[in-house]
Amino acid sequence: MAGQGIERIAVIGAGLAGVVAARDMAVANIDVHIVEKSRGAGGRMATRRGEGGLAFDHGAQYMRAHGSGFAAELDAWARAGLVAAWGEAGRMVGVPAMNAPVKALAADLALATATTVSAIEGAPGDWTLATVEGARLGPFDAVLVTAPAPQTQTLLRPVAPALAEAAGHARYAPCLALMLAYEPDALSRDLPAAQRPDHEAIAWIAQDGTKPGRASDGPRRLVVHATPGWSRAYLEQTPEAIRDALLAEVAPLIGASGAPIHAVAQRWRYALVEEPLGTPCLWDPALGLGAGGDWCLGGRVEAAYDSGRALARAVFAAREGAS
Questions:
Q1: pLDDT tens-digit readout, 104-140
Q2: For residues 103 and 315, what is the distance between their CA atoms, to the nearest angstrom?
Q3: 3-state secondary structure of 301
Q4: Residue 157 DSSP one-character state
Q5: Is the peptide bond before 285 cis (omega within 30 degrees of 0)?
Q6: Cα(242)–Cα(102) distance, rounded to whole angstroms?
Q7: Counting C-beta atoms within 10 Å of the first and last residue's C-beta, which end of the chain has fewer, N or C?
Q8: 243-289: per-residue pLDDT in tens?
């Protein structure tokens, strides 16, 4: 294929990497179609809404720019009211929810949600996507996979074994999260907006109501993240068992004087990139297949952004090389 005729591309995954890649390619007049298994865009920049309108940023907690490219993007998002500063210098969060920037980027893109890709089939220049729901999507000139590395490896192994093998070198740690809500007088009043306790089980505690653009009245909402070691030990427990065990660990740290009015656990199996590939993305121009995500560069929101942009550039280079 060697980049020839890349005009219609599928992107698997609507996290930041996939949506940024799709945005850049759409600007270049490539026909891009994003396929996402969940109900909306965001990936681990996730916000969960519960009973009574309670909202929790239960995935990525904030973002910070280290390079000029992501810094410029954050500035643009801030001017658009999509992010704002929170706490420590340089720490930014989505407004009114963590997924706001990704949702805004995806708003003008072709996005199929609640659609799980089970296989990539076909041949270079004529790829189709088989879905768990029984649909066949395509044909596509190229396919970019931006799912977590283990899922990317599974999809690519039958059609691009070398890319699949490379993706298999990335390593993750899991993270178990707990979303809590308490009556206003049921917690210690001196809780900081966010803290990293020196604790065997608890890695992070944040008060969501302290973030800009969130409701600060009503129940006090907390997001708790467990440490990697504790998360590994409890990963295969039921959500109820995870909830109860994590609540028992965190209650003394937050000065809880009673039971929460809301307590739900979330299992992030592929949460923290411990061993990235050290390359911005994977791309095979002969096949028209590529992959990317934070697992390429490191466990930060910025890494996902940089990888998505690198994927788009790889496609552009392949097209220019074929012209």
A1: 999 999 999 999 999 999 999 999 999 999 999 999 9
A2: 23
A3: helix
A4: T
A5: no
A6: 29
A7: C
A8: 999 999 999 999 998 899 999 999 999 999 999 999 999 999 999 99
Q: Report how far residue 286's alpha carbon sits from residue 307's, in angstroms, rounded to the nearest whole number.
A: 20
* Distance separating alpha carbons of residues 94 and 29, to the nearest angstrom: 28
The pairs formed by 201-207 with CB atoms below 8 angstroms and a separation of 24 or more are 201/226, 201/227, 201/230, 201/246, 201/249, 201/250, 202/226, 202/227, 202/230, 202/246, 202/249, 202/250, 202/253, 203/175, 203/227, 203/228, 204/61, 205/250, 205/253, 205/254, 206/57, 206/61
Distances (CA, A) of 36 to 29, 33, 136: 21, 10, 14
CA angle (243, 271, 224) in 5-degree steps: 35
Counted residue by residue, the chain has a size of: 323
pTM, full prediction: 0.94
E strand or H helix at 20: helix 16-27
- Indicate the average pLDDT of the chain: 95
Tokens representing residue 263 in the block:
């307590």
The full DSSP string for 105-121 is HHTTSEEE-S--EEEEE
Cα atoms in the 13 Å half-sphere on the side-chain side of 231:
23
How far apart are the C-alpha atoms of 296 and 302, rounded to whole Å?
Answer: 11
Return d(Cα 173, Cα 309) in angstroms, integer.
25
Residue 305 CA to residue 211 CA, distance in Å, equals 22
The two tokens of residue 131 are: 């879905």
Contact 293, 304 (CB under 8 A): yes
Amino acid at 210: T
Instruction: Tell me the C-alpha distance between 143 and 173, whole Å.
Output: 27
Asked if residue 183 lies in contact with residue 258, where contact means CB atoms within 8 angstroms, the answer is yes
Question: Going from the N-terminus, what domains does the chain have, and what CATH number goes with each?
Answer: 8-45+99-169+277-322 (3.50.50.60), 171-274 (3.90.660.10)
Reduce the DSSP state of residue 76 to 3 states and report it.
Answer: helix
